């Protein structure tokens, strides 16, 4: 009967631990990247005792709580609206660098850039790792990406119609940029020169009140004449190198004179832009850092490093929504994509805790604890009865 008390105590101890595991799961219901765990049970050692006719009576000694197993099933993906909240829709993990240089892994992609411009976890400030084309794993930084350098304009392309019915036509507000990123707003005035030279136009280019030059363009059968379909404009701003760019009639530019036709010629494309500051930082599906600038440019360089594992048995939860890997041979480091999972920006993966399952397990643990307690009480009463019989 003393053995029965011991057996009941093993049940009380094991179900107490099971309650702790369930409690931890339930309280982390809304923890991003949390993976629920389950306590494993096993029967304890057995003892052989004598039995009639030389048979063996084998009696168990209770239950033992073994290791906990992690459930790596994906949790729900929830949008947050924060561009640096990331989720990997697949089996991959984000890679974090610890203070001792080792790596830990997480599904909780809540990141931000610190004062040094390094991408870190918002909770613990651990650097998030990237991978380059050579497979080297490094930190993700904004170094050299805080601004977009200007680019001088080299080409302005025109499209649509110049009507021979019009004597003159203007294109106002054409912005071009010099090498320092300074904007120059020019005006193009087209003067019909058809009476002097059929199909020809004289184009005067002005910046404010200053005339930059007058140039000739020509059409034949309504189409631009090669060699007379473009001209070069030069601007000499103070303190910066001269700006020289070409104004060219595009393939769709034409000159017609049908009844009721009007001039609609306009700028089709132009290059060049001023200096730009950062307006948005995000990641695309392939895990590339995408920085948008106020000058309309974007920069896409660094890529998130993503870890996958041949077996998840070596992963161990260490808190802070992080895991460490105890099986280095199972680790694979690569880039986001079809194999490791696309990256979703403005989204986090929340806990995979199944509340209905946890409540079911809670009832089982409670009943198991009550039954084990009843075993101890019953064995105690039997011992007491035995002592009472001896006393009589």
Structure write-up:
The protein has 392 residues and is α+β, with helices and mostly antiparallel strands. The chain has 3 domains: 2-72 and 352-391, no CATH class; 77-147 and 278-349, no CATH class; 155-270, Flagellar hook protein FlgE (Tick-borne Encephalitis virus Glycoprotein, domain 1, Sandwich). Helices cover 16% and strands 44% of the residues. It has 2 helices and 33 strands. It has helices at residues 2-27, 355-391, and strands at 37-43, 46-50, 56-60, 63-70, 77-79, 85-89, 93-97, 103-106, 109-113, 119-121, 129-131, 137-139, 147-148, 155-159, 161-163, 168-177, 183-192, 200-207, 210-220, 223-224, 230-235, 243-249, 254-256, 266-270, 276-283, 288-293, 298-303, 305-309, 315-319, 322-325, 331-335, 342-345, 347-349. The strands form 10 sheets. A 6-stranded antiparallel beta sheet has the order 29-30-8-7-28-31, with no helix packed on it. It has a 5-stranded antiparallel beta sheet with strand order 16-17-18-19-20, with no helix packed on it. The protein has a 4-stranded antiparallel beta sheet with strand order 10-9-6-32, with no helix packed on it. Helix 1 runs antiparallel to helix 2 (355-391). It is rod-shaped and about 140 Å long. The model has no long low-confidence stretch (mean pLDDT 91).
Question: How would you concisely characterize the structure shown here?
Answer:
The protein has 392 residues and is α+β, with helices and mostly antiparallel strands. It is built from two helices and 33 strands. It holds the Pfam family Flg_bb_rod.
């Amino acid at each position: 009967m003393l053995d029965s008390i011991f057996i009941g105590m093993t049940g009380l101890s094991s179900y107490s631990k099971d309650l702790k595991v369930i409690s931890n799961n339930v309280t982390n219901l809304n923890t991003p990247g949390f993976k629920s765990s389950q306590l494993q049970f096993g029967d304890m050692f057995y003892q052989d005792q004598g039995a009639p006719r030389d048979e063996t009576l084998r009696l168990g000694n209770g239950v033992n709580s073994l290791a906990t197993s992690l459930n790596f099933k994906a949790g729900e993906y929830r949008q947050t609206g924060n561009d640096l909240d990331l989720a990997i829709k697949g089996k991959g993990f984000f890679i974090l660098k610890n203070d001792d240089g080792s790596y830990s892994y997480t599904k909780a992609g809540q990141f931000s850039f610190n004062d040094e411009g390094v991408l870190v976890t918002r909770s613990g400030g651990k650097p998030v790792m990237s991978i380059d084309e050579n497979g080297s794993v490094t930190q993700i930084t904004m170094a050299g990406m805080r601004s977009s350098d200007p680019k001088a304009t080299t080409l302005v392309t025109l499209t649509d119609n110049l009507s021979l019915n019009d004597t003159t036509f203007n294109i106002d507000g054409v912005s071009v940029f010099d090498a320092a990123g300074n904007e120059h707003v020019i005006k193009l005035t087209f003067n019909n020169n058809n009476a002097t030279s059929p199909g020809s136009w004289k184009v005067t280019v002005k910046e404010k009140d200053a005339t930059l030059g007058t140039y000739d363009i020509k059409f034949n059968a309504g189409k631009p004449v090669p060699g007379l379909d473009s001209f070069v404009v030069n601007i000499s701003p103070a303190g910066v190198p001269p700006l020289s760019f070409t104004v060219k009639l595009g393939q769709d530019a034409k000159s017609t004179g049908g009844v009721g036709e009007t001039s609609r010629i306009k700028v089709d494309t132009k290059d060049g832009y001023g200096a730009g500051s950062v307006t948005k930082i995000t990641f695309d599906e392939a895990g590339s850092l995408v920085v948008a600038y106020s000058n309309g440019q974007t920069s896409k360089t660094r890529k998130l490093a993503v870890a996958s594992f041949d077996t998840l048995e070596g992963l161990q939860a260490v808190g802070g929504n992080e895991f460490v890997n105890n099986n280095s041979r199972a680790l694979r480091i690569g880039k986001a994509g079809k194999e490791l999972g696309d990256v979703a920006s403005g989204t986090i993966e929340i806990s995979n805790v199944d509340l209905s399952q946890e409540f079911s397990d809670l009832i089982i643990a409670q009943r198991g604890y009550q039954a084990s307690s009843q075993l101890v009480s019953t064995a105690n009463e039997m011992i007491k009865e035995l002592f009472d019989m001896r006393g009589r």
